[in-house]
Amino acid sequence: xxxxxxxxxxxxxxxxxxxxxxxxxxxxxxxxxxxxxxxxxxxxxxxxxxxxxxxxxxxxxxxxxxxxxxxxxxxxxxxxxxxxxxxxxxxxxxxxxxxxxxxxxxxxxxxxxxxxxxxxxxxxxxxxxxxxxxxxxxxxxxxxxxxxxxxxxxxxxxxxxxxxxxxxxxxxxxxxxxxxxxxxxxxxxxxxxxxxxxxxxxxxxxxxxxxxxxxxxxxxxxxxxxxxxxxxxxxxxxxxxxxxxxxx
Amino acid sequence: xxxxxxxxxxxxxxxxxxxxxxxxxxxxxxxxxxxxxxxxxxxxxxxxxxxxxxxxxxxxxxxxxxxxxxxxxxxxxxxxxxxxxxxxxxxxxxxxxxxxxxxxxxxxxxxxxxxxxxxxxxxxxxxxxxxxxxxxxxxxxxxxxxxxxxxxxxxxxxxxxxxxxxxxxxxxxxxxxxxxxxxxxxxxxxxxxxxxxxxxxx
Lengths: 248, 202
What we know:
The complex is a heterodimer. Chain A is α/β, with parallel strands linked by helices. Chain A is built from nine helices and nine strands. By secondary structure, chain B is mainly α.
């Protein structure tokens, strides 16, 4: 298992964003669904080692990120794309991805090839030398994905990765997720249930800081069958049914 | 990472922190200080003569503190071991440049207090800026040195003797040197290890 989480909590002042989450995930694409404020982003940030948990136990890639050396090793093998990615507008696409590759301690001789491959995988090869200030929002999102995958991560964490992508790019992106998920654990936080249905092998649904469902997309779909839950697609009806049940 | 990648990493880090523009600003500070001393903009003697140079010392510290702001946010923090060293190197480099350009600016004329006091004051004010970056974030870190300079100007005008108002103390005042050095070390250590605060909500 690349992700083993037990009783994880995170508080921000009086607000408990994550309230006792248990989660295990191996290789594959793992979807993290939930409404706004459910705690998905806080959970992802803890898994990305950028904020510590308030309590609970977390093992990532078999290591405890609470200590310096294991955290360093995790970070070398981690890819992370937050909801909003900052960038330096004067960097080119290649410079941006190269900076992250070097920060992640990749051997310098492998960096140019790895950067070129990551840029190609997000279909930005033609824009490799373009300054980031000249790119559209969707292209910047793909640059962000490139920095996350440049080190061939064993654990890839993506927060709303398809926001700003057009339908064609989203289809390509789902294919990329499935490809990466063959060897790595990919955790995708999203509002978009169609992304989960198309790309994920497992899914968890969060509400009010807790995981209220964990299973396969097919099992989530089944939870909506025979109910009056709202939704335009079977998976959406399953999502709504589980949330309604959790809140009742 | 091998030695081949390190210069590239350092170059990209310095550019992302707008260090080239900051160095230009620091050089400009040194040039204006030189003009001020050469053409006798600075009136009076003793502490009164230090009031104008103290503004430049705080200005360079504010410029250095703002470079702690990084545009990349959490993905950069979720990387390997190099980031603390890059932050440390950037702060040390810019503090050294600030002291050098202000000292060069003051070289032709007699700066009251001399280079020793100048180095102490710049280091102390930079430490305040770096501590401010850890509390309010890099983009607002200039607030620290700018607030301190107001206190320092009052201290100079009223000849305070507290070592914490080091610009008002003589160059060889050991207490003032220790206070300024302690603030500098605290600021540079915290911002190197933790970085500046990303968002006030965290």
